[in-house]
Design a protein that fits this description.
The chain is an alpha/beta fold. The protein has one domain: Rossmann fold, CATH 3.40.50.1820. It is built from eleven helices and eight strands. Strands 1-2-4-3-5-6-7-8 form an eight-stranded mixed β-sheet. The protein is globular. About 45% of the residues are buried.
């Protein structure tokens, strides 16, 4: 992947497809490949898709010390500027949805439409993963057994039905084995998530906003999506029944169609 200079850092990115620009902001421990090829292929038909790796991930600048969600939003805005993109449709999932919130609040002129998937805004009424889910993920991540960590991540990020899809898991496993994210980077991202709070500021958003959340999300329960949709003026809420955290893996075609409709791209 090529590199873009952003405020003294190097951010690895990829542009593909044609149409209006769409910036995809990935979640915790994810890489540009974790969007999944079926979802990306659907989007490339209608958008110029821009994916990238956060600092500390892939070919981007190694992470030095702590980082905040606002820092990552500055990277996203800087990447758009470096690529000569004045504004883009923006989709952020999980931690990336938190980054997208901060990006939209700090630089509303850069966000044509905002889609917030399986994410969290902090504040009263929000909820992170349960202690049981957090313990299972942490124990697997710190076990030193890479396969155990990846299997636990898969099972906690998708619905029980999807967890049994071995073909999909094989694709997820391949990406994880080729693009490992260092544990200290994941820990720094976790700490950034814990301090994230845009709850009181979300009513300031004025761009068209779509909120997508699965009912079987174990990482960030669906109530978070409902709360965000209530807080953002005019936001549309799409609840996916029986779907887990990584909805773009479980429903790639439908997820892409939701983005097309939200961005007013003809089907």
């Amino acid at each position: 992947m090529p590199l873009a200079g952003v405020a003294g850092n190097q951010i690895s990115y990829e542009r593909s497809g044609s149409g209006e620009p769409l910036l995809l902001i990935m979640g915790m421990s994810g890489t540009a490949e974790h969007w999944g090829e079926p979802f990306l292929a659907e989007l490339r038909r209608d958008f110029e898709v821009i994916v990238y790796d956060h600092r500390g991930v892939g070919g981007s600048t190694p992470l030095q010390g702590p980082i905040t969600i606002a820092d990552m939003a500055k990277d996203a805005a800087g990447l758009l500027q470096a690529l000569g993109v004045d504004s883009a449709h923006v989709l952020g999932i999980s931690m990336g949805g938190m980054v997208a919130q901060e990006l939209a609040l700090a630089h509303p002129e850069r966000v044509r439409t905002l889609t917030l998937g399986c994410t969290y805004c902090g504040g009263e009424g929000s909820a992170l993963a349960t202690p049981e889910v957090t313990q299972k993920l942490t124990e697997a991540m710190l076990s030193g057994d890479r396969l155990r960590a990846l299997r636990a991540a898969w099972e906690l990020n998708v619905s029980p039905a999807m967890a049994e899809n071995e073909e999909a898991y094989a694709r997820f496993l391949d990406i994880g084995q080729r693009h490992a994210v260092a544990v200290p980077v994941i820990v720094a991202q976790m700490q950034a998530i814990l301090s994230h709070d845009t709850c009181a500021r979300l009513p300031d958003l004025a761009m068209p906003t779509l909120v997508i959340h699965g009912t079987e999300d174990q990482m960030l329960p669906v109530g978070n999506g409902r709360l965000i949709a209530r807080l953002v003026p005019g936001a549309q809420l799409e609840v996916l029944e029986g779907v887990g955290h990584m909805f773009v893996w479980e429903m790639p075609e439908h997820s892409a169609q939701l983005l097309r409709a939200h961005s007013s791209v003809p089907a």
